[in-house]
Design brief:
By secondary structure, the chain is mainly beta. It has two helices and 13 strands. The strands form four sheets. A five-stranded antiparallel β-sheet has the order 3-7-10-11-12, with no helix packed on it. A hairpin with a 2-residue loop joins β10 and β11. The longest helix is centred in the middle third of the chain and has 7 residues. The radius of gyration is 15 Å and the shape is globular.
Length: 147
Protein backbone atom coordinates (compact mmCIF):
# COMPACT_ATOMS: atom_id res chain seq x y z
CA UNK A 1 0.00 0.00 0.00
CA UNK A 2 1.26 3.47 -0.81
CA UNK A 3 -0.44 6.73 -0.03
CA UNK A 4 0.35 10.40 -0.33
CA UNK A 5 -0.17 12.69 2.67
CA UNK A 6 0.63 16.38 2.57
CA UNK A 7 3.32 16.03 -0.08
CA UNK A 8 4.96 12.95 1.51
CA UNK A 9 4.73 9.40 0.23
CA UNK A 10 4.11 6.64 2.80
CA UNK A 11 4.69 3.03 1.81
CA UNK A 12 3.64 0.09 3.94
CA UNK A 13 2.16 -3.36 3.77
CA UNK A 14 -1.63 -3.47 4.02
CA UNK A 15 -3.16 -5.76 6.59
CA UNK A 16 -6.67 -6.63 7.57
CA UNK A 17 -8.46 -6.20 10.90
CA UNK A 18 -11.29 -8.32 12.24
CA UNK A 19 -13.84 -6.70 9.91
CA UNK A 20 -11.45 -6.32 6.98
CA UNK A 21 -10.53 -2.71 7.78
CA UNK A 22 -7.23 -1.55 9.21
CA UNK A 23 -6.27 2.11 9.04
CA UNK A 24 -2.65 3.30 9.23
CA UNK A 25 -2.12 6.07 11.80
CA UNK A 26 0.25 9.03 11.83
CA UNK A 27 0.77 12.25 13.76
CA UNK A 28 -2.12 14.59 12.94
CA UNK A 29 -4.57 11.81 12.01
CA UNK A 30 -8.22 12.77 12.56
CA UNK A 31 -11.06 10.85 10.93
CA UNK A 32 -14.18 8.81 11.47
CA UNK A 33 -13.65 5.08 11.90
CA UNK A 34 -15.57 2.78 9.60
CA UNK A 35 -19.35 3.13 10.10
CA UNK A 36 -19.31 3.12 13.92
CA UNK A 37 -19.84 6.84 14.53
CA UNK A 38 -16.46 7.02 16.30
CA UNK A 39 -13.88 9.69 15.54
CA UNK A 40 -10.19 9.07 16.27
CA UNK A 41 -7.58 11.80 16.68
CA UNK A 42 -3.84 11.15 17.04
CA UNK A 43 -1.49 14.02 17.96
CA UNK A 44 2.12 14.19 19.14
CA UNK A 45 2.55 16.33 22.28
CA UNK A 46 5.50 17.54 24.32
CA UNK A 47 5.94 15.56 27.51
CA UNK A 48 6.09 18.56 29.85
CA UNK A 49 2.46 19.60 29.33
CA UNK A 50 -0.36 19.25 31.84
CA UNK A 51 -2.86 16.81 30.31
CA UNK A 52 -6.59 16.70 30.90
CA UNK A 53 -7.19 12.98 30.58
CA UNK A 54 -10.70 11.78 29.82
CA UNK A 55 -11.99 8.22 29.73
CA UNK A 56 -11.24 7.74 26.02
CA UNK A 57 -8.09 9.87 25.82
CA UNK A 58 -4.78 8.05 26.22
CA UNK A 59 -1.20 9.38 26.40
CA UNK A 60 1.50 6.99 25.19
CA UNK A 61 5.30 7.32 25.28
CA UNK A 62 6.49 8.02 21.71
CA UNK A 63 9.68 6.05 22.38
CA UNK A 64 7.63 2.89 22.91
CA UNK A 65 5.72 3.03 19.61
CA UNK A 66 6.68 1.58 16.23
CA UNK A 67 5.27 4.35 14.01
CA UNK A 68 5.83 2.33 10.82
CA UNK A 69 3.20 -0.22 11.89
CA UNK A 70 0.94 2.02 14.00
CA UNK A 71 -2.70 1.42 13.06
CA UNK A 72 -6.26 1.29 14.32
CA UNK A 73 -8.30 -1.86 13.79
CA UNK A 74 -10.93 -3.98 15.44
CA UNK A 75 -9.99 -6.60 18.02
CA UNK A 76 -8.46 -9.92 17.07
CA UNK A 77 -8.46 -13.26 18.83
CA UNK A 78 -5.73 -13.30 21.46
CA UNK A 79 -5.32 -9.51 21.73
CA UNK A 80 -4.20 -8.60 25.24
CA UNK A 81 -2.89 -5.67 27.23
CA UNK A 82 -1.54 -4.98 30.70
CA UNK A 83 -4.07 -2.59 32.31
CA UNK A 84 -2.14 -1.94 35.56
CA UNK A 85 1.42 -2.09 36.81
CA UNK A 86 0.73 -4.74 39.44
CA UNK A 87 -0.79 -7.46 37.29
CA UNK A 88 -0.21 -9.53 34.22
CA UNK A 89 -1.69 -9.28 30.77
CA UNK A 90 -5.43 -9.74 30.25
CA UNK A 91 -7.22 -10.53 27.01
CA UNK A 92 -9.44 -7.86 25.47
CA UNK A 93 -12.31 -10.33 25.57
CA UNK A 94 -12.00 -10.64 29.36
CA UNK A 95 -11.54 -6.88 29.87
CA UNK A 96 -14.63 -6.09 27.76
CA UNK A 97 -16.70 -8.63 29.69
CA UNK A 98 -15.50 -7.17 33.00
CA UNK A 99 -16.46 -3.65 31.85
CA UNK A 100 -19.89 -4.93 30.77
CA UNK A 101 -19.48 -3.80 27.17
CA UNK A 102 -22.36 -5.35 25.19
CA UNK A 103 -21.30 -8.18 22.87
CA UNK A 104 -22.80 -6.28 19.92
CA UNK A 105 -20.34 -3.40 20.47
CA UNK A 106 -17.15 -5.34 21.25
CA UNK A 107 -16.24 -5.95 17.61
CA UNK A 108 -16.82 -2.29 16.71
CA UNK A 109 -14.46 -0.66 19.23
CA UNK A 110 -11.19 0.78 17.97
CA UNK A 111 -7.94 -0.97 18.89
CA UNK A 112 -4.74 1.05 18.40
CA UNK A 113 -1.80 -1.31 17.88
CA UNK A 114 1.63 -1.66 16.36
CA UNK A 115 3.84 -4.69 15.64
CA UNK A 116 4.57 -5.03 19.37
CA UNK A 117 0.91 -5.42 20.29
CA UNK A 118 -2.09 -3.50 21.56
CA UNK A 119 -1.46 0.07 22.72
CA UNK A 120 -4.95 1.33 23.62
CA UNK A 121 -8.55 0.20 23.24
CA UNK A 122 -11.59 2.44 23.05
CA UNK A 123 -13.70 2.27 26.24
CA UNK A 124 -11.27 -0.24 27.82
CA UNK A 125 -7.89 1.37 28.50
CA UNK A 126 -4.25 1.43 27.47
CA UNK A 127 -1.29 -0.86 27.98
CA UNK A 128 0.60 0.04 31.17
CA UNK A 129 3.95 -0.74 29.52
CA UNK A 130 3.37 2.16 27.08
CA UNK A 131 2.72 4.85 29.73
CA UNK A 132 4.56 8.18 29.30
CA UNK A 133 8.08 8.35 30.64
CA UNK A 134 8.82 12.08 30.52
CA UNK A 135 9.60 12.53 26.82
CA UNK A 136 7.26 13.29 23.92
CA UNK A 137 3.88 11.57 24.03
CA UNK A 138 1.25 10.57 21.53
CA UNK A 139 -2.31 11.62 22.40
CA UNK A 140 -4.90 9.09 21.23
CA UNK A 141 -8.48 10.34 21.55
CA UNK A 142 -11.65 8.43 20.70
CA UNK A 143 -14.95 10.31 20.43
CA UNK A 144 -18.26 8.60 19.78
CA UNK A 145 -19.88 5.41 20.99
CA UNK A 146 -19.26 4.16 24.56
CA UNK A 147 -18.06 7.49 26.00
Amino acid sequence: MAERRYGSLYIGAPCKGGDGAEIALYDGFSAALWDTGTKLTVLRRKGAQDFNKTFNTFYVDCGKIDFDTLCVRTRRQGDALRPTGNGGHRTLKRLMIDRKIPRSQRGRLGVVADRDGVIAVQSVGMDYDRKPGGGPVLEIRFEGIRE
